[in-house]
Amino acid sequence: MKSIHTSVREQFSQHADYYAQSSAHAKGNTLEVILDFADPKGTEKTLDIATGTGFTAFALAPKVAHVIATDLTPEMAVKASELAQEQAIENVTFSVAAAESLPFATASLDLVTCRLAPHHFQDVPKFLSEVHRVLRTDGLFCLVDSVSPELEKLRAWQNRVEKLRDDSHVYGYPPSQWDAMISDAGFDIEKTAHTRNALMSFLWWVRPQKNPPEVVREIREAFAQLSPDDAKEHYTVEPAGDDFYFSWPMYAVKARRG
Q: How confident is the model at residue 26 (pLDDT cuts 50, 70, 90)?
């Protein structure tokens, strides 16, 4: 059986260009929220974990002293480095690393960010432990990720749909579980926010060029089975002819290492 890390590398190594063009990653409220929560002063040594093609790292770069951007997938780090060069961003360096095993000294960083990635992580408590370790005392951790609703039936529905579309998906936790895990890791939660990312086209998101027609059909049917209230309230579903647009619920946390 493949490890989660292997599944993630296989998945994202093939789609660096796809994520480089993703409006859900490049835009949306989550990027604004994480920048607001971080509120950098210009002197921070910063780490952006699971940077993908670098959107969060690039947004932080003008506002901090330096950003180290890590990703588990070498192809993602290469693509992000190319984009940094194209944009003449000079204070970002790239490193290949798992979120659960960060190659940085204890208490060496001022700010750690992670956006739209932990639902792919093999071991979230270990990831949070590593973030706590590398942050200096009073250092700041800012997280945004897709979350599932607290209601068990919708939590099961969302994780099933995500896994059908992408076998590197591990689990989308509800906000209450995120709060508990972050507190258990030794952080003091200072602020939280429920937010949204940019609306995504289903026909873009489902990746019909990769997923077989029967899987695409099963995922579409799953969305059709949502009640109108759940579709609108939790996933902002908007019909658009043969397509539809939607967004996952997102949760942001600002936490400080005591």
A: low
Strand partners, 193: 252
Alpha helices in 87-151 (DSSP H): 124-134
> In the structure, what pLDDT confidence band is assigned to residue 3 with cuts at 50, 70 and 90?
low
Average per-residue pLDDT for the chain = 91
Structure tokens of 114? Answer: 């992670």
Percent helix / strand / coil, the chain, rounded to 5 = 45, 25, 30
Give the dihedral sign, CA 6/205/99/175: negative
Cα angle: 74, vertex 22, 33; to 5 degrees: 95
- Please give the Cα distance from 233 to 220 (Å, whole number): 18
Q: Is 39 left (phi over 0), alpha (psi -120 to 50) or beta?
A: left
109 in helix, strand or coil?
strand
pLDDT class for 59, splitting at 50, 70, 90?
very high
- Please determine, for residue 23, whether its predicted confidence score (pLDDT) is greater than 90: no
Strand order in the sheet with 187-196: 92-96, 66-71, 45-49, 109-115, 135-146, 249-257, 187-196
- pTM equals 0.89
Measured distance CA(73)–CA(78) in Å, rounded? 9
pLDDT over 80 (residue 123): yes
Average pLDDT over residues 190-216: 93
β-bridge mates for residue 80, sequence order: none
Look at the alpha carbons of 59, 251, 50, 190 in this order and tell me if their dihedral is positive or negative.
positive
**Bridge partners for 143 per DSSP:** 114, 253
